[in-house]
Structure formats: structure tokens, C-alpha cells
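PROTEIN ENTRY
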Amino acid sequence: MVTRKQPKKYKTSEICDKYDISRATLFRWESQGILDGVERDWRGWRLYTENNLKTIDKIIRGKNTV
């Protein structure tokens, strides 16, 4: 039997700690459509993928160049 490794998914608190941003900022980016494709678990909690992390990196790099 072949078992597939599930891609890592990150909780909101992990993302906020990693990038030193608030939950409100993260949720605002999502509501404004800047950050899309955020998954939800069975409780409705947000789960972020590696693709979401790449997008967050781009957002933060863009803000730091202004």
C-alpha cells in the first residue's frame, strides 16, 4: 500500500508568529482578496498551505519596498 504524505498546513497562530503579523491583518488580506485559496478544517478554522505562504511573502516584500 502506498501512503501519500499530506502537505503541511499551518494554523493562523503559526502564520502570525512566523511573519510577526496580527490575525486582523491576515484576515483583512483574505477579505480584501489579496490572499485567496485559504482552506478551512471541519471546525471552520483557517488552514494555510505552502502556496498561501508564498503569497504572504510577496505581500510583505511588496509592503517593505514602499
Q: What stands out?
A: The beta strands are 10-11, 39-40, 46-48.
